[in-house]
Amino acid sequence: MVIKVFLASSSGSTAIKKKQQDVVAFLEALKVDYAQLDIACNEENRMWMRQNVPEEKKPANGIPLPPQIFNEESYCGDYDTFFDAKEDNSVYAFLGLPPPPGSKEAEQADKAHIVENGTHAEETNAEGNLDDSIEVPVEKCNGDAHGEEGEEEGEVAEGETADDEAMEEETAGDKAPAEEEAAVEETDEAHAEEEEEQEEADDDREEEDLQSEEEEELRQLEEEEEEDVEETQEEEAE
Q1: What is the per-residue DSSP string for 156-175?
Q2: CB within 8 Å of 226: residues ≥ 6 apart
Q3: Which family does it belong to (predicted)?
Q4: CA–CA dist 227, 73 (Å, integer)
Q5: Model pTM greater than 0.85?
Q6: pLDDT tens across 24-38, in order?
Q7: Segment holding 77, helix H or strand E
Q8: 139 - beta bridge partners?
Q9: CB–CB of 5/36 below 8 Å?
């Protein structure tokens, strides 16, 4: 499967150029096979893109702007949906491709699978082994009439209780690093979310600043279409 990215090589919009560069650079970083299809120099590419973008995904004026992304004939989305997928570490799902082993997206899928199915076997076994390790002295179960043997049983019981307490402390010590790692991961995730929110806010401000440029690009594309139609009519008239 080849990913198709429809671009406008001669776009006069800085915003569109930046979005196209962002998509291409990210796909190259992921080493995803893709093809660039220019709609500025190839009328067939332009018409194919506009015809295959779903109606519900088109803007109000009905003319989708580049970049538009497809997986062969299947529509993936525009820059906004691509950006959201990138922020969520779900680009491979967005592109309709399986995530490579070891990638963040694959790790997230594995974690989601574990959470969905549950995996507490190790903890259950550990608790079961801990209970099995507690042995009750034979003498204590059967009883004994001799005072010396009773004292020995008390010493044995105290020793076993101390061993049990030490084992519980070791078990708690093993759990502590895992809890610390989980807390560190939560802190890192919260920090990453804050950075993502800040980036989104910056992008929103930049989108507002560049909105007028996109509108100008749209007008240029419409004018080009009108000129093409007029030329075609003139040729037919001749």
Answers
A1: HHHHHHHHHHHHHHHHHHHH
A2: none
A3: Belongs to the SH3BGR family.
A4: 29
A5: no
A6: 999 999 999 999 999
A7: strand 74-78
A8: none
A9: yes
